[in-house]
Design brief:
11-stranded antiparallel sheet; globular; M23 family metallopeptidase; alpha+beta; two-stranded parallel ribbon; Glucose Permease (Domain IIA)
Length: 295
């Protein structure tokens, strides 16, 4: 067996069991609080959670795969691998190099003022109030659709003081339910050579493809929605080495069809954090323009 095979198995082992570790932690802490277990039980469950973030010392991720961007127009990057890895704080569900993108409602020069996000009271906004909702999602490369589901509802945003804690509790429940409840409506495409792209949180009823369909680079797959574990409408994108996120390890990527504006940020999200990104990979809070890929 060569080094690449050993490395791939190590990444998949960590990715597969990280989901289990998170579920054990959630169930264990709940039992600790409800059953008044001894204190050492808490630390045991905390160790179970820590295992979700383990990276084997011999693990070497494969090099970045260059693909087209899954969106067009002006967007903002959040939870980006251009700022930290793992980008979403966990390697579970193949999310090591995942990125979130949304349409910024306000853009300014990087040396301007950057007010913090403002949360209100009352009922959270419906998804239709956000600019990203309904934006088309494009295939980043040619391939075959291996999974597609758009049956989950688009829920309201979590942009109020009452909605935020609800999102935290809901997120734990979705983790226990598995990756389909976290991703919401989604499409997964097999591009060959062990590369699969995943598009999550899509709009209910918006998919234009089904499993088995052959797609070309730039083809519209569906629309941005607010399904699954989301705070507001956005696209969650990632590359991974297996078609099932629960068994996959993440693959780094670069977008060949974007231009990052290093002098622009969206004030609501502040300045880029912990890294300035790379060509084809914006950092957190960086604004970028994505041009259409050639069909």
């Amino acid at each position: 067996m060569n080094d690449a095979d050993t490395t791939g198995k190590a990444r998949r082992w960590v990715a597969r069991w990280s989901d289990v570790h998170i579920k054990v932690f959630v169930a264990g802490v709940s039992a600790f609080l409800l059953l008044d277990l001894p204190g050492w039980w808490y630390w045991l469950f905390l160790c179970a959670l820590a295992l979700a973030y383990v990276r084997p010392p011999w693990d070497r991720a494969r090099g970045p795969v260059t693909v087209a961007a899954p969106v067009t127009g002006t967007w903002l990057a959040l939870n980006s691998p251009g700022s930290k890895v793992p980008a979403h704080g966990t390697r579970g569900y193949g999310q090591t190099y995942a990125i979130d993108v949304l349409v910024p409602s306000d853009v300014t020069a990087a040396d301007g003022e950057h007010p913090k996000p403002r949360f209100g009271w009352g009922l959270p906004d419906p998804p239709e109030n956000f600019a990203a909702f309904g934006s088309p999602i494009h295939a980043v490369a040619a391939g075959v659709v291996v999974a597609a589901d758009d049956r989950q509802r688009d829920h309201r945003a979590r942009n109020t003081w009452s909605g935020f804690p609800y999102m935290l509790v809901e997120g734990l429940a979705r983790q226990i339910g598995g990756w389909r409840f976290v991703f919401g409506n989604h499409v997964i495409i097999d591009h060959g050579d062990g590369v699969h792209s995943a598009y999550a949180h899509l709009k209910h009823g918006s998919l234009r493809v089904r499993p088995g369909d052959r797609v070309e680079t730039g083809q519209i797959l569906g629309e941005v929605g607010n399904s699954g574990n989301t705070s507001e409408p956005h696209l969650h994108f990632q590359l991974m080495d297996r078609p099932r996120p629960g068994e996959a390890a993440g693959i780094p990527f670069r977008w060949s069809t974007i231009t990052v504006h290093h002098d622009l940020v969206a004030p609501r999200y502040g300045l880029p954090k912990t890294g300035r990104g790379e060509p084809g990979l914006p950092a957190n809070a960086q604004v970028f323009d994505a041009r259409p890929a050639e069909l």
